[in-house]
Design a protein that fits this description.
The protein is an alpha/beta fold. It is built from seven helices and 13 strands. It has a seven-stranded mixed β-sheet with strand order 1-13-12-11-2-3-4, covered by helices on one side. A six-stranded mixed β-sheet has the order 5-6-7-8-10-9, with helices on one face. It is globular, with a radius of gyration of 18 Å. Strand 11 (about 270-275) and strand 12 form a beta hairpin.
Length: about 300
């Protein structure tokens, strides 16, 4: 199966394309790296401005009548109390919000880290569901990490050894703010992909951390392993992530990899609406976010 990518930068052109097609099966609001905290700006990150940006995005999602919203991680930059003003904004729209856990979501006091998944409505840190002929698979790249696990725990020690090994190889992604997907989760991902293939479903994977292009300093520690696992499967597969704070589209072995710009960046907003069709996807970018059309033949 061959993958054809049409990258469209004109929002008006995208809307013409969408109108010429039949109505999408789903409209999905996409946000990434809101990273709110009640702190002064730092470099390109305008922390307090994220509140008004998110409100603007929610208003737009409501007007477009999205079916649900996906947050690709890092709702806050630090401190547990910063979740409340951000989560309150989601109450302004009566649609589900599906969360991916980001590394900054765990930038809280040690005794509050176990509260992070529950406050985001997560009974499990990785999960999946199906809508029409598309399977949405939500990953937890903080599974093996130094910041999301108790010091001295098995996963913490595995993370320490993995990071030390990467540093010894001068790996680009050998940073404490990255993490990895553990063995149990990797086996679960393989099962999810197998089930989707057997049922004839297309696949959208959601991750905070990218896995491609390789040798990127924001990648999962075991990005090559996860990339190879995903690319064993044929068909229509898309991998969506945040963490990089920049928009990009790449493909490898018929898998399309899309990174979204961080909402916290600069003064211009950035969010997207994903239009899901039977055999194609349209990403309508707003503000500084890029737009793409992905077709398969």
């Amino acid at each position: 199966m061959r993958l054809f990518l049409f990258i469209v930068f004109s929002i008006s052109s995208l809307h013409v394309i969408a109108q010429e097609n039949k109505q999408p099966l789903l409209k999905v609001g996409i946000i990434a790296d809101v990273q709110y905290c009640d702190e002064e700006n730092k470099g390109t990150r305008y922390y307090r401005l994220s509140v008004s940006k998110l409100k603007n995005a929610i208003t737009h999602f409501r007007s477009e009548e999205v079916d649900f919203i996906i947050n690709l991680g890092d709702l806050i930059d630090r401190d547990f109390e910063n979740f409340e003003p951000i989560l309150n904004i989601f109450t302004q729209i009566d649609v589900p919000v599906y969360n991916v856990l980001g590394n900054h979501d765990f930038s809280v006091e040690e005794d509050q880290k176990e509260k992070v998944p529950p406050i985001l409505g997560l009974e499990k840190r990785y999960y999946s569901f199906s809508r029409f002929n598309w399977k949405f698979i939500f990953l937890d790249g903080n599974d093996i990490s130094l910041y999301a696990n108790d010091k001295g725990s098995d996963k913490y020690e595995i993370a320490r050894l993995m990071l030390d090994s990467l540093k010894g190889k001068n790996a680009a992604n050998a940073h404490e703010w990255n993490g990895a997907i553990g063995k149990s989760q990797a086996e679960w991902i393989s099962q999810q992909l197998s089930q989707a293939r057997k049922s004839g479903e297309n696949i959208i994977l959601l991750s905070h951390f990218p896995v491609f292009p390789l040798n990127d300093h924001e990648n999962l520690w075991n990005s090559l392993e996860i990339k190879n696992l995903i690319e064993q499967f044929s068909g229509k597969i898309v991998f969506l992530n945040g963490h990089t704070h920049r928009s990009s589209l790449n493909f490898s072995n018929n898998v399309c990899y899309v990174s979204f710009r961080g909402m916290v960046e600069e003064t211009e907003n950035s969010f997207a609406i994903l239009e899901v069709y039977n055999d194609s996807l349209i990403i309508n970018g707003f503000g500084a976010e890029e737009s793409h059309q992905i077709n398969w033949e």
